[in-house]
């Protein structure tokens, strides 16, 4: 079936945020926003599914207006579900894992990071979200320049990948998945709580003829990998918002 013949309610376009709608941890560009809302939105149902929480989505996509602009919003890998601007569901990792397991994990992470030598370290090494923990070796309180510096250092020394390997070994008895997203951190969440989690809500409430997903971290270990490969949708790999714009133009015959 040609996408051009589908009605708006027949097709769902799901987007990652970082590297897909914006450059990493940057604000969406005005020209992209205009293209997206004036040309794409009239043609298809639109949704976002990101690893970040809702506040970070607000920061990158120009505020709370996204509650009205997007039909579906899935922060934290879809562990929080927002439909029509209203929160309709939420999972909780603390309740799922229990305090004893959480403390064991946190203690190990902090002990490991205390022994890792990096060019710099800042603050906030573990951030709790509803459906996941975000672990950041450099600390989330770093500047844009420090973030870019760590990204280059990590690409050479594989700081995050080596840490994940150790965590998998240490916590093999716990049902945890590790996913690298963005430049400086990685997410930790129970098995199955990756971005495909949002599809549970979508399938329970909607009957789209086509679902498309756009993301940049689609390689194994990336936080778009599982949903990109899911047979229930068509995945599109992008590297920048320009790629997203180009593919959308072709897909929707804009």
TrEMBL record:
Belongs to the eukaryotic PMM family. Alpha-D-mannose 1-phosphate binds at residues 25, 129, 140, 147, 185, 187. Its EC number is 5.4.2.8. InterPro entries: HAD-like_sf (IPR036412), HAD-SF_hydro_IIB (IPR006379), HAD_sf (IPR023214), PMM (IPR005002), PMM_cap (IPR043169). This is Phosphomannomutase. Pathway: Nucleotide-sugar biosynthesis; GDP-alpha-D-mannose biosynthesis; alpha-D-mannose 1-phosphate from D-fructose 6-phosphate: step 2/2. The active site is at residues 16, 18. GO terms for biological process: cellular response to hypoxia; GDP-mannose biosynthetic process; mannose metabolic process; protein N-linked glycosylation.
């Amino acid at each position: 079936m040609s996408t051009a013949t589908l009605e708006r309610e027949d097709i769902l376009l799901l987007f990652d945020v970082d590297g897909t709608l914006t450059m990493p941890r940057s604000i969406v560009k005005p020209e992209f926003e205009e293209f997206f809302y004036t040309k794409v939105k009239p043609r298809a149902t639109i949704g976002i599914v990101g690893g970040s929480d809702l506040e970070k989505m607000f920061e990158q996509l120009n505020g709370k207006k996204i509650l009205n602009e997007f039909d579906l919003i899935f922060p934290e890998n879809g562990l929080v579900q927002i439909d029509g601007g209203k929160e309709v569901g939420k999972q909780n990792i603390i309740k799922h894992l229990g305090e004893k397991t959480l403390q064991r994990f946190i203690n190990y992470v902090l002990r490991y990071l205390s022994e890792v030598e990096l060019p710099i370290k800042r603050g906030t090494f573990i951030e709790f979200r509803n459906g996941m923990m975000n672990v950041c070796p450099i600390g989330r309180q770093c500047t844009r320049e420090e973030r870019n510096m760590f990204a280059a250092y990590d690409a050479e020394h594989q700081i995050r990948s080596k840490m994940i390997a150790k965590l998998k070994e240490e916590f093999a008895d716990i049902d945890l998945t590790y996913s690298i997203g963005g430049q400086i951190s990685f997410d930790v969440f129970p098995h199955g709580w990756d971005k495909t989690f949002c599809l549970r809500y979508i399938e329970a409430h909607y009957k789209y003829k086509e679902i498309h997903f756009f993301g940049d971290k689609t390689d194994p270990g990336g936080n778009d990998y599982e949903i990109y490969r899911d047979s229930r949708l068509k995945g599109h790999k992008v590297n920048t918002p320009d790629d997203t714009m180009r593919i959308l133009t072709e897909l929707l015959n804009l």
